Structure formats: C-alpha cells, structure tokens
Amino acid sequence: MGVKINWTPEMDALLGQDEDRAIADRLYREYPAMRWISTKLVQERRKALGIEGCGRNRSKPTGSKPRKPTVVTPPWTPEEDAILGTGSLEKVSVRLSRPTSQIQKRMKELGIAHFAQRGTPRSSVKLQAEEAQKERNKVRLIQRMRKGAVIAEGVASGYTYTALAKELGISPTAARNQFLMFLRVAMLPSMLGEEIPRDFKNIPSHVLKKAVCCVENYCINLEKAEEE
C-alpha cells in the first residue's frame, strides 16, 4: 500500500534547494505529518513538478562524456607496401594519406628500414631483393628468405598461419609477414614473375613449391657472392 503525502506549497518550495536526501531529513524534522517521508518520495515529487535536482541529484547532460571514436586501420595493399621506405615518414604519410604512426608500425612489421637509414630510396617492392644484394648484411636477408620458405612449404601443404606459428614458436602475424616477404622475392621477374598473383591470393600449391626452390637457389647464389 502506497504512502499518501499531502504536499503544501511551503514543502514544494524546498524541493531542489538541496539534495533529495537532505530535503527528506528536513521535512521529517520540521513537519510532523511527514513522518513517512523518504528520499524516494522527495525525488518523485520533485520530478513530477519538473524541478531540477541539486548536487548528486542533478541530471547529467546527454553526451557530457563523448565516447572516443574507434580507429579502424584500413588493410594495407601491396601497392602501399611498395611505397614504404621510399621517402621520409612525412612524405610517405602525405602520399598514402595515413598517419606516421601507422607507417612506422607497418615498416617495423615488414622489417623495412627508414629512408634516412637506407641511403638510397627503393623504387619498388620487386627491387627489394636486388637492392638487398648491395647491403652488407646479406646473411640476415638469407635467413629471412629461408624462414619464409618454411612458411610457404607449410601453406602449400594446407596449414594455416596459426598452426605454423604454433609449430615454429612465433606469432601468426610474424608467420604471415615472413610469408609475404618470401613472396615478394619469389615474384621477381628473374624468378616466377607473374606466376604469383599481385594480391598474393589463391596461389596454387605447386607454384609455392616451385617458389621455394627458386628462392633457395637465390639464397645459395647470395652466399656464393658473399664468399667471393
């Protein structure tokens, strides 16, 4: 059974002057007829009269704390990857319409050195392996190619990046990056060329196995050139 309160103009005048709990305490002390008063009843009466609350009872404006927008990074394309390292971060940022933070992260994932560290710009992804021959640290390149070849053999056999990564003790992202680096070398005109699709999708297993052989021969030639 609900409690019926006979509100007077004097009582209504107190609403909104303090927090609802404080008003309820005051009404209880000053008006004997309000012995059944409660904070909830004060709040209901105040809202029924359209009176704004006070302190903690004040209504919060909608949107007072705007949500931070979710930033979605667009997927990288082979054409965009080809531009990485060809100029300063600022110039590449303008050319790709991407923030420098995304560019730095992508270059780190692919192991691409910054323009100032390379000495000469890279003209295209297809020239990456040839330019690597001019670098002193050819051993590192050979190691990366052979790691990518292991991933390629696994993909050709039907394994996923996740399964291969678990077997090799690396992350699925690292496995994917090693595979893509391997494909960029395998698609050079001196190797398989157009046999490998530019989007790196739906590559037949026999083409991948052929690419493994070509890249291994490429690594052997690099080792011989290093010895000479």
UniProtKB/TrEMBL annotation:
<protein>
    <submittedName>
        <fullName>Uncharacterized protein</fullName>
    </submittedName>
</protein>
<feature type="region of interest" description="Disordered">
    <location>
        <begin position="52"/>
        <end position="75"/>
    </location>
</feature>
